[in-house]
Design goal:
This protein is α+β, with helices and mostly antiparallel strands. Helix content is 39%, strand content 19%. The protein has a domain at 212-368 and 387-482: Beta-lactamase. It contains 20 helices and 19 strands.
């Protein structure tokens, strides 16, 4: 009798193991191949209708799944969509996923490898499957303030980050759009909205221009020339640089003019302090011609140019400085040294470059994600600051910082000043067309203990408008972070 009972238990246990194994295999281990099977037409619809995890800022959802009365039980809802469109992206049945919705899709859907036991528990308890929450590093008040600084109808981007951790505190751009248009269950409504939005210039449909759009960086690139000069051993803090009104080139009818809005024309020779305070062109063009293209390219790459691997965790457009494979002639190298010609950078790259100087030469991995939590609020991932690269030495970073402080105290970035705080900054004015420019400011504060980096670009504006929308707005952002 006991043997018969034991045999029955063995059979029951074997059947349970077989059943459990089959469920586990089909639902978890074979899920990827089944989901990717082109014959599985229901998978996308099923995922689209699931209770996807929220994207949070300051504990409040900026993207969440809300229950519906239709066959599709949940619909994605975006709160403050214009403010966050460039970061959240969208989750659309017709047009796929972008932004954080795409970069963190496995966590938000609850299908990541480390969520196995959560899925098993949900399957056996009958609980409605629910994804994990993703909390961003964004400061909601700072995000709103930065967004308000870009006038409606004027394209522009602002990046605010912590140079010591790489955490992105604010990242905004205009024009923006309502991401809810992409989340509708009505395919025709989504198609019309999509066709309308992709036809609008400068709209950040697939990611914020702050990390997806390239601009000529202009004179903010001179910080890289300065680092290359000091590291070369050919220059030091006391070096005197040639500062002609125009830089001529043998054999061609072309001259590179100096910057005409500062005091550059008052001296034929300049110190680094004077050249940076007034953003003179010819001294930095001369440095590049002296050091050569390879040296400037290598320095640019040490600060993140030509690196296609950066993710925040969204993929970032690669900023570019011409490499040795495409040799520049002398005018081309001179123009590149002042951030023109074919040099292109995202606002995020300029913020990263600036953060490296602020952080003693260490460039931190930029990141938008603070924490990932399970539905029962267990933290499974949190931001751990990581050094991305050593861009320059602490000594060079300190010297450049001192000169950047002088640019704000005595030079053309005076609008970024904050009473009682040492602010380090650099402006840029990259000529585009029709007397318009890409107006830049980048800098950090306090200079002696950096807490925040601010980078602003306003493309295709006149000089006066650019000056009004960059340095003074940077001052307001510094004050907001430092509570001044």
């Amino acid at each position: 009798m006991n043997q018969a009972i034991r045999n029955s238990w063995i059979v029951a246990i074997a059947l349970f193991v077989l059943l459990f194994g089959s469920i586990s295999y089909v639902q978890f281990f074979a899920a990827d191949s089944l989901n990717s099977n082109p014959s599985n037409n229901r998978q996308l619809l099923a995922t689209f209708c699931n209770n996807r995890g929220p994207i949070l800022v300051g504990g409040h959802p900026i993207a969440e799944s809300v229950a519906t009365n239709s066959d599709c039980k949940y619909q994605r809802k975006y709160n403050d969509p214009y403010l966050y469109a460039g970061l959240t992206g969208f989750f659309s049945l017709s047009n796929g996923q972008y932004g954080i919705e795409a970069a963190m899709k496995e966590q938000l859907a609850g299908t990541s490898t480390d969520a196995l036991f959560e899925r098993i528990s949900q399957a056996f308890t009958g609980a409605t499957p629910q994804g994990r929450s993703v909390e961003l590093t964004i400061d909601a008040n700072l995000q709103k303030l930065a967004y308000s600084m870009i006038p409606d109808g004027v394209p522009g981007s602002i990046v605010v980050m912590n140079p010591k951790t790489g955490a992105i505190l604010a990242m905004v751009s205009k024009p923006s759009y309502d991401t809810n248009l992409m989340a509708s269950h009505d395919k025709e409504t989504v198609a019309k909205a999509y066709d309308n939005l992709v036809g609008q210039p400068n709209t950040n449909l697939f990611g914020s221009p702050a990390f997806k759009q390239l601009y000529a960086p202009g004179s903010v690139f001179k910080l890289i020339d300065t680092a290359a000069a000091l590291e070369s051993g050919k220059y030091n803090k006391d070096s005197v640089l040639p500062n002609p009104a125009e830089l001529a080139f043998p054999g061609i009818n072309y001259t590179l003019p100096n910057y005409r809005y500062g005091q550059c024309d008052s001296q034929s020779k300049a110190t680094f302090t004077f050249a940076l305070e007034n953003s003179c062109n010819t001294p930095f063009a001369s440095i590049a011609l002296n050091l050569g293209q390879d040296a400037i390219t290598k320095e640019a790459e040490k600060f993140g140019f030509n690196d296609s691997s950066v993710k925040i965790p969204i993929g970032v457009e690669t900023s570019r400085f011409p490499g040795s494979s495409g040799t520049l002639d002398q005018p081309g190298l001179a123009q590149s040294a002042i951030g023109q010609r074919d040099v292109q950078a995202t606002p995020l790259e300029i913020a990263m470059m600036t953060a490296a100087i602020a952080n003693g030469g260490k460039q931190m991995q930029p990141n938008l994600v603070q924490t990932v939590r399970t539905p029962d609020l267990q933290t499974v991932q949190s931001l751990t600051p990581q050094v991305l690269r050593q861009s320059t030495t602490p000594e060079v970073a300190k010297q450049i910082t001192d000169w950047m402080v002088s640019v704000v105290d005595n030079g053309i970035a005076s609008g970024a000043a904050v009473p009682g705080v040492k602010v380090a900054g650099k402006t840029g004015t990259a000529e585009v067309a029709n007397n318009l420019n890409n107006a830049w400011f980048t800098g950090f504060a306090p200079a002696d203990d950096p807490q925040v980096v601010v980078t602003i670009v306003m493309p295709n504006v006149d000089v006066v408008t650019g000056a009004q929308l960059t340095s003074p707005n940077a001052s307001k952002l510094f004050k907001a972070v430092l509570k001044k």
